[in-house]
Amino acid sequence: MSTLFAPSAAPLTIGSLQLDVPVVLAPMAGITNTAFRRLCREYGAGLYVSEMITSRALVERTPESMRLIRHHESETPRSIQLYGVDPKTVAEAVTMLVAEDRADHIDLNFGCPVPKVTRKGGGAALPWKTDLFRAIVEGAVKAAGDIPLTIKMRKGIDSDHLTYLEAGRIAEGAGVAAMALHARTAAEFYSGTADWTAISALKEAVTSVPVLGNGDIWSADDAVRMVEQTGCDGVVVGRGCLGRPWLFGDLAAAFRAPSGESARTAQPTLGEVARGFRRHAELLVEFFDGDENRACRDIRKHVAWYFKGYAVGGETRAALAQASSLAEIDELLGRLDPDQPYPGADAEGQRGRAGTPKQPALPDRWLDSRELQETHRAELTEAELDTSGG
């Protein structure tokens, strides 16, 4: 077992919510559904946010959106992330969630770097238009009432078009309960190294609400270092927990340990990993209303993440990625050596695709002005036509 030394971490207060550990599961499209949130919660503590829900689809009550906002009775507090580009529609979506008592916390997405989102002016491209950003946030905060509303954003579009400090001040003035910064630009996607100094700068600029840091947290050690180096009030964990839901146990142990004392970190055997994978599949079956085939198709993308670094043959990995029932999964997992020890560094580090830096896709002449132009309204209208979940 490796050890780390805990920082002096206080509980995290976000509006009316108080978290005993300052840890948030980042919204990830196709990943942070009810099943994965429940699994992570079983290992640790914190705030577990839904995958991105498109505000227009929610207002129109599409079946997929209504399914994605469902929470299991064990989930508390209930947290939902919304994506939208129209102030009126976003406010209507927030109003719906509050009126129907479907959330205890609402987050707004201003950080998505995916080209199909930014080329329409959404995600990480939107804060460049300060008037539109302000209108969305102010309207959402008002609609949320007593429900804490937060935002998650990136540094900006690229190194020449940074938006996070101004957006942070606007959001603070609008009354958000907290804000999170992924310390990369849209152009960087997930490549390179996150710029934690930007988190420090935002923390200095925003003084009345918590600032959370996101980017390159692959272990509890990384989370501790981020808090110590940046002064941020908490951490948001995304790709680092893929195939490693027990990371939330490590994080809870690190932040609960008395300052200066060491905290133990999980080093699961292959058997323990297999049990986590099986539990995930089981929860997905429940999420998909008993459809084992659909659940098994969904968990395929998790196979490489769970078994990273372990001596699991390519044939078994491929078979797990083709299983169509829990019985098939059980048979395949039964072939593994449960006593195979944790492989150390081979099982750690980066997970998920980092991509490469590239010029962000944007609406034509988007960067010409910080104010929204009439010529861009058509692109914005099309920005929410995709289904919820990203």
Describe the structure.
The chain has 390 residues and is α/β, with parallel strands linked by helices. It has two domains: 3-265 and 354-382, TIM Barrel; 270-341, Non-ribosomal Peptide Synthetase Peptidyl Carrier Protein, Chain A (Orthogonal Bundle). It has 16 helices and 14 strands. The chain has helices at residues 34-43, 55-59, 63-68, 87-99, 115-118, 130-144, 164-174, 196-205, 220-230, 247-256, 270-287, 292-299, 303-306, 314-320, 326-333, 377-382, and strands at residues 3-5, 12-14, 17-19, 23-25, 47-48, 53-54, 79-83, 105-110, 149-158, 161-162, 178-185, 211-214, 234-237, 262-264. The strands form three sheets. Strands 4, 5, 6, 7, 8, 9, 10, 11, 12 and 13 form a ten-stranded mixed sheet that branches. Strands 1-14 form a two-stranded antiparallel sheet. It has a two-stranded antiparallel ribbon with strand order 2-3. The longest helix has 18 residues, at 270-287. The chain is globular and about 60 Å long. The model has no long low-confidence stretch (mean pLDDT 93).
What would the keywords be for this entry?
TIM Barrel, 2 domains, two-stranded antiparallel sheet, Non-ribosomal Peptide Synthetase Peptidyl Carrier Protein, Chain A, 390 residues, ten-stranded mixed sheet, alpha/beta, 16 helices
